[in-house]
Amino acid sequence: MIRIAVAVCLLLYSLVSAATSLTEQEQAWLGEKDRTFSIGMVSVPPYYFAGENSRVAGYSHDVLQLIAKQLDLQFRYRLYPSFAEVKTAVLSGELDVAAAINPSVKRRKNYEFTRPYLYIENRYFSKRGTQIDTNNLTGVKIGVSRGTLLSEWLIKNHPEAIVFEADTSKDLLKLLSNRSIDLIAGVSGSIEWNARQSSINDIEMAGDVVLDYQESFGTNKDKRQLIDILQKGLSGISTDQWRQLERRWLTGQDDSIWDQIRQLGIYLIIGMIFLGIMAVLVWNRSLQWQIKARRQAELAQRSRREMLEASSTMESRRRVSAMFSKMLEAELPETVCLHWTVQTSGQVILEGASGVQAAIKQKMAEQCQLKLKDIRQRPAKLISLIKASEDWAQFMDYCEQVHSPVRMLEPIVCRSRLIGFVSIHASVESSKSFEPGMTEQGKVSASVRFFELVMERFEDRRRLYEMAHQDSLTGLPNRRQLYEELTQMLSQGEVGALLFIDLDHFKMVNDSLGHEVGDLLLKAVASRFQCMLSEDQMLARLGGDEFVMVMPRCNGAQTEEMAQTLSTLMEDSVTVSGQEVYLSPSIGIALYPENGKNVDTLIRNADAAMYQAKDKGRNRWQFYDISMTVKARERLNLLGDLRLALARKDFELYYQPQHDMVSGNIIGAEALIRWNHQQLGFITPDKFIPLAEESGLILPLGEWVLETACNQMTRWKEKGIQLERISVNISMAQLHQPGLIARVEGVLERTACRPEWLEFEVTESYLMSDPVEAGRLLAQIRSMGIMVALDDFGTGYSSMSYLNALPLDRLKIDRSFVFKLPDEDEGAIVRAIIAMCQCLNIGIVAEGIEKKEQKQFMMEQGCDLAQGYLYSRPLPCHEFEKYFANLPEFNQNDAQTQSLIQRPNPPTQVEPA
Fewest CB atoms less than 10 Å from the CB: which of 68, 283, 404, 791? Predict the structure, then answer.
């Protein structure tokens, strides 16, 4: 490709007939500048770099020297640490010319360019042996030179990749050697040159970047005359001079080097003559053949034994494949045996090729980019498709070129499925071409059958191992493997940390979107977390949405940094089945051996720290301390008591009246749950409601609240207590649970409660989780005759834009806004909310009215209903009935009103979900 691009450049410049002589104006301008200009670039061998004695050298340097010689110019060369600094220096005028810059449309706004004189090819490079699919860069860490067009292109076109910028190619090679990055994206010639200079031999080309571009000389807009002069200099370079530059720098064919090669060839010829004389010693040839045959037989037998041992000890499949190739080559002298694997995706991969040089093997793998569309067909049919494919034909042509033609093709079948095939080639070093006969075909068939048995055994053991040690959903290590690895680490006296990770509100997402989506979500999260692991770290899944990360040889600061990274990693949404889901992790951290010297203690303590993180608001991490064990035990005991309380019906409903703000009449009441613990007394809802949500008890608890409230409403109606309706908080779990409408209808039928007596209060977080689905469900509820109120408005998401589209009857202004009234700032917010609701014809309820000033403010703004301690605290049933009966006296006697709101510590209002 470089040859073609340079040839095009040569042709273009050869067609330019403009004279290289300068005009008088140009000569005068050069005189003003002393005919001296500064040239700058980053070190990108072989185009521009510091050579011997720190002098600048390279292709671009030599081009500039030819221009300087033609036009009597002087150039001062500079090397910059990064390309971004080169661009900045040119724009500021510190530097006259950038030696190599891509003339993109975007850059033409700030720069002037000559015609392109250089073609750049960009490639991906990885450490040798690393398998990275460059067509799927999700989570792949890619290093690139800072400020280059390639860097901008990668960031724009591959947002799924993680892009690291460095100043030079040498810096990128260091990052790759340290495995800080997975790939280098850069100029192929520069990467290879720097690798040779640094004696780095373990990198290889991993694929094309699909971004090749041309380079020009560039200046800022104020130096247009300099561009015209440089262009004339380029036009004056002859075709022979261009070719000489190409041979020296781009193709490695410098004339001086060719002279050395010719001289070396003479010496080689003399050496070959000497070797020919030595060939008289060929008398021992027959003996050597006998020894070789015996060794090959022994090698084949040893390979069989090694393959059997490897399959029983779960050796690497790649090693077993290499053994298979060795065994076949031992059975068939003068051959090369290539083992190809057919992956479940249909991709055909060259797995084993022991008798082939690494360079030829790499080329063979590149030539055969074969993929089968449907591998479920019969093996014979698949082999026919392989033979008929263009990729296989291209591979065979290459084998002919290297004198190793394909002679046989034998399928490898495991349990009726084609898992690969073996191709038998004539050896490159062989003096005669291998022609298989009946004997050779029999040996190949027997060896392949043996390998099939080995692979069946290998697959059986692999499946058993995975079933025992891996999580079937995510492929991560399971609890058993985690225990084994941790036990070994602790027995060796290692220090480190264990992170217990739980996904916040995952159960709600799982229940609302379905278990299939939940499974996909867990796999996506596991994949994100895995990207952050180093080689010695481990991520396991205990079950559900619980993960454990083990970090050996890490201190507290490093562990905290990892916890921060995991939290940041989850800030971006996860898209599964067309749904965007936001999750956050709560992380508990236990250090070993300080927080536990055995696996059970470590996991238990990290779990306790995780629950402490949840108690502090979720989406955070918490280090373990000894007090958490006590809290965890108390939490566990309270959860057990909660289950018993639900069975014994130790709960009671309190009712807080809702007053008409104009007449003062009681219009309705809100049902609020209270737990009268047999030993601990009354427990506030903020203590047990989160436990009920996490354990799933919120569903039966919420159903009990609904049925009890409906029963009470029916009895009040029968007693002549004419409340318009009773409000019941409905949890997100209930709203997401299938069959809600049918259950509500059943409750209404059992309690003889009419739907128009009932109001459901839902939270903003439910509405915003899926506005379309929420609107559909709430519309069904309203169609039954039940009113719908939006509870605690303003404390959750910003849902104002959805109010007009959602089927709501009332909006409850949260007590946090009412508390500071008539404060000017809070008052402005409340006025805006009320005005909006009035425009949308939505009723308004003010929560937490405790002072006359608050009541007066809300009345002046046109609020419909109010509830709070100014009127009454939440009351048990019998006290509520007494309060209702004494309402006229209450309205007339402010002193009595004030006495009703006196309380030392008012109970926290927490909805049952």
Answer: 283
What is the dotted CATH code of the domain comprising 470-625? 3.30.70.270
For residues 153 and 323, what is the distance between their CA atoms, to the nearest angstrom?
A: 43
Kindly give the interhelix angle for 698-719 and 740-751, rounded to the nearest 10 degrees: 30
Q: Which two tokens stand for residue 415?
A: 């349990």
Query: Is residue 890 predicted with pLDDT exceeding 60?
Result: no
What pLDDT, on a 0 to 100 scale, did the predictor assign at position 143?
Answer: 94
Q: What is the pLDDT of residues 836-880, one digit of tens each?
A: 888 888 999 999 899 999 899 989 889 999 999 999 999 999 999
Half-sphere exposure of 186 (CA within 13 A, CB side): 34
CATH code at 298-433: 3.30.450
pLDDT in tens, 180-219: 899 999 888 788 878 887 888 889 988 888 888 789 999 9
In angstroms, rounded to a whole number, what is the distance separating the alpha carbons of residues 69 and 74?
A: 9
Backbone angles phi, psi at 153, to 5 degrees: -65, -45
Tokens of 27: 């000569």
Is the bond preceding residue 657 a cis peptide, omega within 30 degrees?
no
pTM: 0.42
Written as one letter, the residue type at 248 is R
More confident residue, 444 or 307: 444
Q: What angle do CA 458, 461, 463 make, to 5 degrees?
A: 105
Contact yes or no for 149/104 (Cβ under 8 A): yes
**CA dist., res. 615 & res. 609, Å (int):** 10
Does the bond joining 822 to the residue before it have cis omega, within 30 degrees of 0? yes
What's the mean per-residue pLDDT of the chain?
A: 82
- H/E element holding 233? helix 224-235
Q: Are 489 and 496 in contact (CB under 8 A)?
A: yes
Give residue 653's pLDDT: 93
**Measured between alpha carbons, how far is 214 from 4 in angstroms, rounded to an integer?**
13
Contact present, 760 and 731 (Cβ < 8 Å): no
Q: What is the CATH number of domain 1-120+212-252?
A: 3.40.190.10
Integer Cα distance of 727 and 656 in angstroms: 10
Most confident of 277-291, 615-629, 792-806: 615-629
Three-class DSSP category at 677:
strand
Residue 345: Cβ-neighbour burial (10 angstroms; 0-12, 13-18, 19+): exposed
Domain covering 122-208, topology: D-Maltodextrin-Binding Protein; domain 2 (3.40.190)
Using alpha carbons only, how large is the chain's radius of gyration in Å? Answer: 39
Contact assessment for residue 205 and residue 125, using Cβ atoms and an 8 Å cutoff: yes
**pLDDT at position 909 over 60:** no
**Cα separation of 606 and 99, whole Å?**
58
- SS3 (DSSP) at 900: helix
Q: What average pLDDT does range 279-291 have in this prediction?
A: 67
The predicted structure's pLDDT at residue 347:
83
Please answer whether residues 779 and 807 qualify as being in contact, where contact means their C-beta atoms are separated by less than 8 angstroms. Answer: yes
Mention every residue, 6+ apart, whose C-beta is less than 8 A from residue 439.
none
Q: Is residue 509 within 8 Å of 733, Cβ to Cβ?
A: no
Spell out the residues 6+ positions from residue 212 whose beta carbon is closer than 8 angstroms to its own: 1, 119, 120, 121, 122
Structural domain boundaries in the chain: 1-120+212-252, 122-208, 298-433, 470-625, 656-900
What's the mean pLDDT in 414-423? 81
Which of 3.20.20.450, 3.20.20.140, 3.30.565.10, 3.40.50.970 is the CATH number of 656-900?
A: 3.20.20.450
User: Side chain identity at 652, as an amino acid letter?
Assistant: E
pLDDT, position 16? 42
- Cα 609 to Cα 102, 296, 626, distances in angstroms: 54, 62, 10
Q: 322 to each of 326, 383, 644, how far by Cα in Å?
A: 6, 22, 63
> Tokens for 414?
């495991």
Q: Is the pLDDT at 898 greater than 60, yes or no?
A: no
- The Cβ of residue 874 has, within 10 Å, a number of other Cβ atoms equal to 22
